Amino acid sequence: MTNVIIIFIHLLAAGVALGSSIYCLKVYLPVVEKNPGDRDENSPSYKILDLLAPTVFASLLMLIGSGVYYLLENYSAQVGLKPGYYNLFGIKMLFVAGAFFTSMYVTFSLRIQISDLDLNPANKDLVSPNLKKMIGLSKMAMWMVAIALFLGIWLARF
Ligand code: HEM
Description:
By secondary structure, the protein is an all-alpha fold.
């Protein structure tokens, strides 16, 4: 029963991270952004990335927490695993680490630089280049989460 709950949380967080990224970056923004060249603090990408970045980061924290908890809960079952299981697990962790640090940079560096523009009006110049970087890096994190998801399903059936 515990395993079912942990994997449910793991899959829910994976669904939120990937689902929200695909919707925002591949469905919403291409439709609403008329002129991606001149983004400013009133463009849709400014508001949506302000929500997407922390959502993906929080989901990644939940994935790491539930994944580690699953391993701790099942530590005695890990002696009987087939050879190669941890090779696959290691490759999955590389993609998880890539997605985690990319998401952390987008959420806590690029996003923060262009928030509270009333207090820091000089940062208005950063809005367009930062949004461009945030969209590019969020797409990269999205692909890394997608590959980690594939490797997770492979692991569970290894
Ligand atoms: C981007 C982050 C991640 C994604 C998208 C992801 C996705 C998945 C998926 C889809 C499964 C298959 C569940 C099933 O079909 O039963 C899975 C299983 C698993 N994940 Fe993750 N995961 C992520 C991060 C992590 C992390 C950080 C850890 C551990 C530190 C972890 C440990 C595990 C373990 C132990 C399993 C179970 C494998 C088994 O049943 O043998 N995952 N993951």
